[in-house]
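Notebook entry, structure prediction.
Reason for the run: the old model in the group folder had no record of what sequence produced it. Starting over properly, with the input documented here first.
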Amino acid sequence: MADSHFPPRGSCDCHVHVVGPKAQFPLAKHRSYTPMDAPLPALRVHLERLSLDRVVIVQPSFYGADNSCMLAALAELGSAARGVAVIDTDITTMEIDRLHQAGVRGIRLNMASLGGASNDAITALLHDTARLCGRNGWHIQLFTPAQTIVALEALLPALGVPVVIDHFGLIDPHASQSPARNTLLRLLATGHIWVKLSAPYRITDQVGSPDVAALANLLANANPERAIWGSDWPHTPVHKGAPVHDDREMPFRDIDSADLLNLVPRWFAQANRRQAVMVDNPARLYDF
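New structure, fully documented this time:
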């Protein structure tokens, strides 16, 4: 790692996926791609290699609302792991409580998958999801194009539950003018919104660029208690998002998670900021 004090004890990878074995946990019939397996033993190797003590497993799109693979991993990892589920809004309160007992602490919404949904439909979905999250103190995790953040600025803080924005808000770090960046900064300042400083390769080919470091600092400075880090392991492949009928596996991106982790001390010179992003903030959000 970058120095003898990094990562600090109790550090959390707040964004990983577990895949398969597909013979045991088959993928959803309707999906946008077919990934390779990245089962629990491989995740353990990832966490040990990076000296990370805690992890948050995020339900990937290709499993739909079948959280079986994630829940099996949570059961094996115990108190060191939490989950973010994808659910159907007609889920029962009994099932919500069962997921909470299993370690789930949030519901993921992929706004990109909603296609041409109307503003009214998106608003209704967010309110329905917030109602489900409110039962056990969960959060909404939002994967959305940057421009959608602008459109949702008034709505998100009014939902009554925390909202976590994935992957830097997909904001272009090199753009000199960015309405989405300015909106996200305002949202973070409200205290109701969190941001994952995760997967910078999703917003640039130059992950080590000073522009990425500047964006990470802008977002963390907007509210130091609302920024967290994630690797996005195992780095799912680039895909078009449209439904496919193809069982051929696509390889994961050739990304070294250790390189991503080592960006954190380059972004934040202060030990207390690294402690907040890696340990203290995740512990609060995910109830570790």
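Summary: Strands lie at 12-16, 54-58, 81-85, 104-110, 139-143, 163-165, 193-198, 227-230.
The old model has been moved to the deprecated folder.
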